[in-house]
Structures are given as structure tokens and as C-alpha cells.
Automatic annotation (TrEMBL):
Belongs to the beta-class carbonic anhydrase family. Pfam families: Pro_CA. Its cofactor is Zn(2+). It is an enzyme of class 4 (lyase). It comes from Flavobacterium frigidimaris. Keywords: Lyase, Metal-binding, Zinc. This is carbonic anhydrase. PROSITE patterns: PROK_CO2_ANHYDRASE_1.
């Protein structure tokens, strides 16, 4: 156990040395501040590293991760990240990226209790209920699982669009576009789900806030 921990510290030293060898001002430039054009909302799964997937460098992606890449309207952690990214960093894109094989989505499709996370997964179960006719019509279990992963990512994009943070930015004329992706663990490729929202016109009227 201790050997693993000590190796992490050694890895850090090697990374610093390699980075400075390529650019002596690497860390000095990073310390000056950040102006990332993108907020990434992804899953906590250790196999889905935001920067590496899109070939981004440190400072280019602002990141929020949680179980099953959820956008929950009462989650102050996510809302705080979103508010800072949109209103302070002025990001121009927000990507919600799910991934095939997501354990949180899989758990939401069954009835087994997995502990305190049951309360979080309940939000995903609500989505299944909204799309149960379509999902239950898919006989192949793997195909149904993949379809639900995609649906979950799409729903989170719409949840983003419903927030007062995003709608306030649009009302103020800020360039901000929301996107939904799914990452393939077994291929490395992302799938664009073709849900790209740049105004509240694509939302049901009841979600369009008019007094911001």
C-alpha cells in the first residue's frame, strides 16, 4: 500500500521534469490563470479522462464529474461549477459526456440496492420511466443499455438548458452552446448525439424563464 503511494509521488516528479524539459515556462504560464473554452460534465469513472479523450492540455478544459454525468437541479456542487464556468470563465461550450458501460446507468435499470448511491440513481430511474416504452421495446439487453446511456446524456443536456444560469447567459447575448456525447470505452471514440442547444427556443415553454 505504501509502495503504491510513494510511486505516485515519484511519478509526479518525473512528470514535472518532462514538462519543464519541453517548456521551461510550462508551470509559470499555467499559474497566470485559466481561460478554458469548454466545461466538461462527465462521469466519475476512472476510464473516462476528459483531457485525454479530446487531446486537450491543462488549462483548456474546466471539469465537473459525478456518478453517471448527472445534471441535478438541486446539486449545489454542479451548479457552482456551472455558474463559475459560464459567468466567470465565460466558456463557450458545455459538453455532457456519458459513456457506454456506465455502472450508474446500469444500476438504475435494476432493482438491487447499492447503498447511499440509491438516492442519486433515483434520478436516472425517473428518466427510464419517461422512456420506458421505447427502452422496453429493445429486446437485446446490451442494445437497451447503450440506448439508455445515450438517453441519459441527452436528458442532462436539456437539464442544463433549463437552469437559470444557462438561460441567463443566453438572455445576455453570451455565446454558449450545449452538447451531448457518449464515449466508447472499447474504442476510444466519442459519439455526437446531435443534441446541440444554443438557445431556450428548443425547450418546452414552461422551462423558458422570462424574468431573468
Amino acid at each position: 500500500m505504501r509502495k503504491f503511494y510513494e510511486q505516485l509521488l515519484e511519478n509526479n516528479k518525473e512528470w514535472v521534469e518532462k514538462s519543464l524539459a519541453l517548456d521551461p515556462n510550462y508551470f509559470a504560464d499555467l499559474a497566470k490563470g485559466q481561460t478554458p473554452p469548454l466545461l466538461w460534465i462527465g462521469c466519475s469513472d476512472s476510464r473516462v479522462p476528459a483531457n485525454e479523450i479530446i487531446g486537450a492540455k491543462p488549462g483548456e478544459v474546466f471539469v465537473h464529474r459525478n456518478i453517471a454525468n448527472m445534471v441535478v437541479h438541486s446539486d449545489m456542487n454542479m451548479l457552482s461549477v456551472l455558474d463559475y464556468a459560464v459567468n466567470v470563465l465565460k466558456v463557450k461550450h458545455v459538453i455532457v459526456c456519458g459513456h457506454y458501460g456506465c455502472g450508474g446507468v446500469k444500476a438504475a435499470m435494476g432493482n438491487m440496492s447499492v447503498g447511499i448511491i440509491d438516492n442519486w440513481i433515483r434520478h436516472i430511474k425517473d428518466e427510464y420511466r419517461l422512456h420506458d416504452k421505447y427502452l422496453n421495446s429493445i429486446e437485446d439487453e446490451t442494445e437497451r443499455f447503450n440506448a439508455f446511456v445515450e438517453i441519459n446524456a441527452k436528458e442532462q443536456v436539456y437539464n442544463l438548458a433549463k437552469t437559470s444560469i444557462v438561460q441567463g447567459a443566453w438572455k445576455n447575448g453570451q455565446d454558449l452552446m450545449l452538447h451531448g456525447w457518449v464515449y466508447g470505452l472499447n474504442s476510444g471514440f466519442v459519439t455526437d448525439l446531435n443534441v446541440n442547444i444554443a438557445s431556450n427556443a428548443e425547450l418546452d415553454e414552461v422551462y423558458q424563464l422570462s424574468n431573468l
